[in-house]
Automatic annotation (TrEMBL):
<comment type="similarity">
    <text>Belongs to the ROK (NagC/XylR) family.</text>
</comment>
<dbReference type="InterPro" id="IPR036390">
    <property type="entry name" value="WH_DNA-bd_sf"/>
</dbReference>
<dbReference type="InterPro" id="IPR043129">
    <property type="entry name" value="ATPase_NBD"/>
</dbReference>
<keyword id="KW-0418">Kinase</keyword>
<keyword id="KW-0808">Transferase</keyword>
<dbReference type="GO" id="GO:0004340">
    <property type="term" value="F:glucokinase activity"/>
</dbReference>
<dbReference type="InterPro" id="IPR000600">
    <property type="entry name" value="ROK"/>
</dbReference>
<dbReference type="InterPro" id="IPR036388">
    <property type="entry name" value="WH-like_DNA-bd_sf"/>
</dbReference>
<dbReference type="Pfam" id="PF00480">
    <property type="entry name" value="ROK"/>
</dbReference>
<protein>
    <submittedName>
        <fullName>Glucokinase</fullName>
        <ecNumber>2.7.1.2</ecNumber>
    </submittedName>
</protein>
Length: 413
């Protein structure tokens, strides 16, 4: 049966209250009415219902301004799981209903992996965290790499893992958990985490440049994530850079895997220093930290490689700033902060190539959520998806259910 408009509006307003309390970490009834532009009496009625349903609780009045009890999300009402994976590792978090971390775990992938091994490992990681959750699990958010079809819940293509084409991520997780599973682009999940409770909190327009195994961009416009057509916005790893060796993709120049692979290849073709010779002989798989350590020990060639990395990162950041004119660029992932050489050169290049009018307000800032930003963003998105604010979302879901049931009834007839 099609929902009546009044019921839809009621649900949307109650969900709006829940989301505002979740985002803010707690607020007063008066502030809710002002922020949501809802009559204070009506807010009081909705809040009383949410308190009665166990979704909200009242905090300590003594700890609040003017001695009024703040409204808080009831942390015991349920739980959310978020999992973020890329070419080198996976991270997962379990959060209570208020978004506080209950448990977290990181898993590094071996040098040689297959598509099936990766899937088995990340599903097993999720199962381990689910076992540590006591409250009802309400959703599982998977922040996936590469080109992601969020609606279908699959990875279309990811060039950094073998045979990672048309991978049914949602289906694999749905086989082992009963809660709803959704799939999000991993860099958008990072951006959502920083928007909600990180460096982007309170910022209406910013970019989140995440440089990890690959490189991607989360775009926040007017306080909302921008996904673009087909949910493909932010694939900056496929931007092309001119180099002396010819055109190169950004991901091959600045991502952890691309930079390390190119640097190791160049190492092997040059006369090695004692530092580089030891590095190549002792390490099965050279990583970014090894190159940083070699530069710190005095290897001039590794220092120059890191400075070039910083230059390329600064050029990328400047190009994005000139294109979007954001309030700031939030930097995420291990690459931008891997070495002072990289970060300082990135800052210099960013200032050199960013338009003065944009540079007057836009700046680079490290994300505050660290390596678990993607997993946290995926977990916290579960709250917004469980309690959607948009009335159009509620109506469209009801229509989809109605059309599905109508098709089933027609088949039976």
């Amino acid at each position: 049966m099609h929902p009546r408009p009044r019921e839809t509006k009621l649900a949307a307003k109650k969900n709006g209250i829940l989301n505002e309390v979740f985002r803010s970490g707690g607020c007063l009834r008066f502030d809710l009415a002002r922020r949501l532009n809802i009559n204070a009496t009506m807010v009081g009625n909705y809040v009383d219902e949410l308190l009665g349903e166990g979704l909200l609780v009242e905090g300590d009045p003594a700890a609040a301004p003017r001695g009024r009890a703040p409204l808080l999300i009831n942390p015991e009402h349920g739980a959310f799981l978020g999992l973020d994976f890329e070419a080198l590792r996976a991270r997962a978090v379990a959060c209570d209903f208020a978004g506080n971390v209950i448990a977290q775990e990181e898993l590094a992938f071996p040098a040689e992996v297959s598509r099936e091994k990766v899937l088995k490992r990340i599903v097993a990681l999720a199962k381990r965290l689910v076992a540590r959750i006591k409250a009802p699990l309400l959703s599982v958010g998977v922040a996936a790499p590469g080109q992601v079809d969020c609606e279908a819940g699959r990875v279309i293509h990811y060039r950094l893992l073998p045979d990672f084409d048309q991978v049914p991520i949602r289906d694999r997780f749905q086989e082992v958990v009963e809660a709803p599973v959704f799939v999000e682009d991993n860099i958008r999940a990072v951006a959502y985490g920083e928007l909600l409770r990180g460096s982007g909190r309170g910022i209406r327009n910013f970019l989140c440049l995440a440089v990890r195994s690959g490189v991607g961009l989360g775009i926040v416009v007017n306080g909302e994530l921008y996904s673009g057509a087909h949910s493909m916005a932010g694939e900056v790893g496929y931007m092309v850079f001119p180099t002396p060796e010819g055109p190169r993709l950004a991901t091959d120049l600045v991502s952890a895997t691309g930079f390390v692979d190119a640097t190791v290849k160049a190492m092997k073709s040059r006369k090695p220093t004692d530092i580089r010779k030891r590095l190549l002989q002792e390490r099965d798989r050279v990583d970014l930290a090894d190159i940083v350590a070699a530069a710190r020990e005095g290897d001039e060639w590794c220092r120059e490689a890191l400075e070039r990395l910083g230059t390329h990162l600064g050029m990328l950041a400047a190009s994005l700033a000139n294109l979007f004119a954001p309030e700031k660029l939030v930097l995420a992932g291990e690459v931008p902060g891997c070495s002072p050489l990289v970060r300082q050169q990135m800052e210099r290049t960013f200032r050199q190539y960013t338009l003065p009018t944009i540079l007057a307000t836009a700046y680079l800032e490290d994300g505050t959520l660290g390596g678990y930003a993607g997993a946290l963003g995926a977990a916290w998105q579960g709250f917004a998806r469980t309690f959607p604010v948009s009335e159009s979302i509620l109506v469209s879901r009801a229509k989809e259910k109605f059309e599905r049931q109508r098709g089933e009834f027609a088949a039976e007839a």
